[in-house]
């Protein structure tokens, strides 16, 4: 089921006990240009995939390279959604550049240099950013899609850059509680369901859209 809202209110990003864990906390008021997809529904992946196709058709030119940036770390259950998605995509998508996996996570310590590398190595990149998020109890398990950039670190002393032409988040837990409680109470099952749905939607979008004639991955690398 797809749900739309009208205004987004970003409260802050939370850092837990280690410096390389990022949570992007969003308040569940009204949302601007934000769409919701219920990962527990059977057709959620197809609905999200179709929406991603439409976003790319509207915004990506043939001269741009698509890059998927999966933010998070496997050191915390609640923050491993991005790397799980990255692992899936790395094995399935061979024409799209993917950054952020379980082996090589993208987190607070290397996010800035990763963004700099992407812009230096790729031609006018269109970046799809994927990360975990927090919300109200009723929205746990929902996926959000937005044409606005992710803003990790907003409201805290960490100055992390906004990233993404298209942002996909999975709501993994409730906002407003201490980080130690969030880490201990986030269910891996919820994170896995969200990650599988997001990864499947992205694979579906790029394997079935015929939007852009992407050159093989190795050809892109040889051109750098």
Taking all Cα atoms into account, the compactness measure Rg is 16 Å
Multimeric status of the protein: single chain
Q: Class in CATH? A: Alpha Beta
Q: Describe the sheet with the most strands.
A: 9 strands, mixed
String of helices and strands: EEEEHEHEHEEEHHH
Helix content: 25-40%
In round numbers, the mean pLDDT is 79
**Helix segment tally:** 6
Give the full name of the CATH homologous superfamily: HybD-like
- The CATH topology is given as Rossmann fold
Count up the domains. 1
The coarse overall form would be globular
* CATH architecture name: 3-Layer(aba) Sandwich
Q: How large a portion of the residues is in β-strands, by DSSP E? A: 15-25%
How would you describe the overall organization of this protein?
The model is unreliable at 5-18, 24-31 and 212-224 (pLDDT under 50). Strands 1, 2, 3, 4, 5, 6, 7, 8 and 9 form a nine-stranded mixed beta sheet that branches. Strand 2 and strand 3 (22-27) form a beta hairpin. This protein has one domain: HybD-like (Rossmann fold), CATH 3.40.50.1450. It is of the alpha/beta class. The protein has helices at 44-59, 81-92, 111-121, 179-185, 188-208, 217-223; strands at residues 2-5, 9-15, 22-27, 34-38, 66-70, 97-99, 126-135, 142-146, 166-174. The chain contains six helices and nine strands. Helices cover 33% and strands 24% of the residues.
């Amino acid at each position: 089921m797809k749900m739309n809202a009208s205004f987004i209110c970003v409260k802050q990003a939370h850092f837990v006990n280690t410096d390389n864990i990022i949570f992007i906390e969003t308040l569940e008021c009204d949302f601007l240009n934000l769409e919701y997809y219920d990962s527990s529904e059977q057709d959620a992946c197809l609905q999200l995939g179709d929406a991603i196709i439409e976003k790319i058709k509207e915004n990506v030119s043939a001269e741009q390279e698509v890059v998927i940036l999966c933010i998070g770390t496997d050191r915390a259950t609640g923050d491993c959604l991005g790397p799980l998605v990255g692992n899936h995509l790395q094995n399935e998508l061979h024409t799209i550049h993917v950054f952020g996996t379980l082996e090589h996570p993208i987190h607070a310590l290397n996010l800035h240099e990763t963004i700099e590398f992407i812009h230096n190595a790729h031609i006018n990149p269109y970046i799809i950013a994927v990360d975990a998020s927090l919300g109200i109890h009723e929205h746990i398990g929902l996926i959000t899609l937005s044409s606005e950039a992710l803003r990790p670190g907003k409201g805290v002393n960490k100055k992390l850059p906004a990233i993404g032409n298209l942002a996909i988040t999975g709501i993994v837990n409730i906002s407003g509680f201490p980080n130690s409680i969030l880490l201990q109470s986030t269910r891996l099952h919820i994170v896995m369901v969200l990650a599988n749905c997001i990864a499947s939607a992205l694979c579906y979008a790029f394997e079935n859209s015929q939007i852009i004639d992407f050159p093989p991955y190795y050809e892109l690398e040889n051109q750098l």
